[in-house]
Amino acid sequence: MEFCPTCGNMLQYELPHMGRPSRFFCPTCPYVCHLENKVKIKRRQHLVKKEIEPVFNKEDMKMGGSETDVDGHAAGTRDRIFYVFYVFGGYPHIRVCDTATCPSCSHGRALFSQVQIRSADEPATTFYQCLKCEKMWRED
């Protein structure tokens, strides 16, 4: 991967065409770098994947929190729900909503999180999870 020394954008590769040698070119400025017939790789950089500690590990999910959790459920229910929201879109901002009604069991409390999954000029999508039956639904 090479970058333009003028503007910093990633250079694109162009195959040889009608006697013109292959080259790297910048799509935004006039910079062009012609390649020789035999190219030697001068530098090789090995990328190392960054290791990140998970927010929840499997042991945390199994153990849960206290003896009773949100709405009097068994321990671990809230952690399981948090994990589901975590998978949706990175680190969540989860709150309890007292006005949401579950479409399955008609329970009046649910956890919710808003995620911007469409373009910026569209409203955010709200994901809900019932605290009683754990059914998930969304409102666009």
What does this molecule look like?
The protein is an alpha+beta fold. The protein folds into two domains: about 1-50, N-terminal domain of TfIIb; about 60-140, N-terminal domain of TfIIb (Single Sheet), CATH 2.20.25. The chain has two helices and seven strands. The protein has helices at about 60-65, 75-90, and strands at about 10-15, 25, 30-35, 95, 110-115, 125-130, 135-140. The strands form two sheets. It has a four-stranded antiparallel sheet with strand order 4-5-6-7, with helices on one face. A three-stranded antiparallel sheet has the order 1-2-3, with no helix packed on it. A hairpin with a 5-residue loop joins strand 6 and strand 7 (about 135-140). The two termini are about 40 Å apart. One of its GO terms (molecular function) is zinc ion binding. It comes from Gossypium schwendimanii (Cotton). One of its GO terms (cellular component) is RNA polymerase III complex. It is found in: Nucleus.
Summarize the structure.
This protein is of the alpha+beta class. The chain has helices spanning 58-63, 77-89, and strands spanning 12-14, 23-25, 32-34, 95-97, 110-115, 125-130, 136-139.
